[in-house]
Amino acid sequence: MTKINKNYLNLQGSYLFSTIAKKVNTFSAENPDAKIIRLGIGDVTQALTPTIISSLHQAVDEMKDKSTFKGYAPDLGYDFLRKAIADNDYKLRGCKIEADEIFVSDGAKCDSGNIQEIFSVDNKIAVCDPVYPVYVDSNVMAGRSGTFVEGTGKYSNIIYMPCTKENGFAPQLPTDEVPDIIYLCFPNNPTGATITKSELQKWVDYANEHESVIIYDAAYEAYIRDEDVPHSIYECDNATTCAIELRSFSKNAGFTGVRLGFTVIPKELVRDGQSLHTLWARRHSTKYNGAPYIVQKAGEAVYSEEGKKEIKGLVDYYMRNASYILNGLREAGYEVSGGKNAPYIWLKTPDNMTSWDFFDYLLNTANVVGTPGSGFGPNGEGYFRLTAFGNYEATVEAVDRIKNL
Ligand code: PLP
């Protein structure tokens, strides 16, 4: 008889955004005239820029001619894109990352869920609390989490690093128990918090000292404004011997529907006597057949001079929303953070409401959808996430509605 992977039964509840979607659908069915504004899910709203579109068109045209047609892409990515990434995202920032240390993929969600496969199931992982749910759920599926402890909202075998108002929503180095794998995400989803280079250096030193691996999710790197906030973990000394970095084209260039991302594993990153670069190359080439040529050409265009200007315009557009939300809610008396180097605004719910109570309240009274902080972990309870990815006009209206409550 076929047996299932029982680890899946250990997953908690349904995916956060499906629960939100169900609630919003019920509300709009009951209130057909309500003009709902969605600042919940972190999807972008603005169109792809002209340079990206023309690059996509050109690549499509190449497909119609036998001499320029492309079939399977190289497993690890086309050289033109890997080189553009290495030159622009890393060498320009003084990071020693070579093109062949970059693995092109169809996005950071898959990479952040799949990367744990190259590590032993015995490894202990540490995550921030609150956290992007994929890191936890993918480790639950792999059987690395232990059991779920009712009442705590935590798995018994995962180290949760609290990110609270008291520590500026940045985790402290674990002292009680040393994790083997540490997930960090800066600028952070959901809190919008960032980390300075000197603070991140402490994590790198800790990981090197304890021979842990940091999985550094920099999906929101394009939103960094402050000089002392690093864009890549490889800006820190000796990070190439302890860190894997994940990046995405979703939130800088608006590729959430186009799909493109990459993972960086330096060749000198060795654990258990093995090169993690070699293991991931083996995994990638066995289970993945490459991001489409057309999409990788669009990715290359992101690094052209015109592409860079246009992408900066997109990010500036969303950051104008972020400032409007941040300032508007602050004026209305809310306790808010994030939104300065990140497209997420993290707010304390008023009057000690739970995150889901505030979700319902906002939906019912202002017809605005956000994301309950408790969906990201126990320390997210009593908090709420709004995103800056809406249309400017809709964002302004949403904030004004909240202010008028
Ligand atoms: N990592 C973080 C922290 C995210 O918030 C997201 C998307 O919301 C992703 C990764 C996924 O990005 P992608 O669209 O490249 O799969």
Characterise this structure.
The structure is a single chain. This protein is α/β, with parallel strands linked by helices. The chain contains 12 helices and 17 strands. The chain has helices at 16-30, 50-62, 79-90, 108-114, 133-142, 197-210, 250-253, 276-287, 293-302, 305-331, 355-366, 392-403, and strands at residues 37-38, 102-105, 125-129, 148-149, 154-155, 158-162, 181-185, 213-217, 243-248, 261-264, 270-271, 274-275, 336-338, 344-348, 368-369, 371-372, 383-387. The chain has a 7-stranded mixed sheet with strand order 2-10-9-8-7-3-6, with helices on both faces. A hairpin with a 2-residue loop joins strand 11 (270-271) and strand 12. It is globular and about 60 Å long. It binds pyridoxal-5'-phosphate (PLP).
Small molecules in complex: pyridoxal-5'-phosphate
Spatial sequence of strands, sheet with the most strands: 2-10-9-8-7-3-6
The number of helices is 12
Let me know the average pLDDT: 97
Low-confidence stretches: none
Cα-atom radius of gyration = 21 Å
- Class inferred from helices and paired strands: alpha/beta
Biggest pleated-sheet summary: 7 strands, mixed
The proportion of residues forming helix, as a percent range, comes to 25-40%
- What's the total number of strands? 17
Assess the beta-strand content as a share of residues: 15-25%
- Spell the H/E element sequence: HEHHEHEHEEEEHEEHEEEHHHEEHEEEH
The outline comes out as: globular
What is the end-to-end distance? 58 Å
